[in-house]
Design goal:
about 80 residues, six-stranded mixed sheet
């Protein structure tokens, strides 16, 4: 697999939304990809969480990166994170 690089925006979003760079990379490497808007790709992966996020307890965290495949690398544009 090509190297995975987070854009500046994606790097900001993982901290703000509670994901880690390792979770984003694992999601891209192991989850099925689906086409997204504007020629991009997306995928989702659930991770065991079992702790509080913003004052509420959640058992699962879902990491949802949006990325593009370039000739020599994968570039993550943004990352969404869902808790349930």
């Amino acid at each position: 697999m090509k190297p995975i690089r987070l854009s500046g925006h994606a790097r900001e979003m993982i901290g703000y939304r509670g994901a880690t760079e390792e979770e984003v990379k694992e999601t891209i490497q192991t989850a099925p990809w689906q086409p997204a808007r504007q020629g991009r790709w997306e995928c989702r992966k659930n991770f065991d969480y079992g702790r509080d996020w913003n004052g509420k307890f959640y058992t699962t965290k879902q990491v949802h990166p949006i990325f593009v495949e370039e000739s020599d690398e994968m570039v993550v544009i943004t990352v969404y994170v869902y808790y349930f």
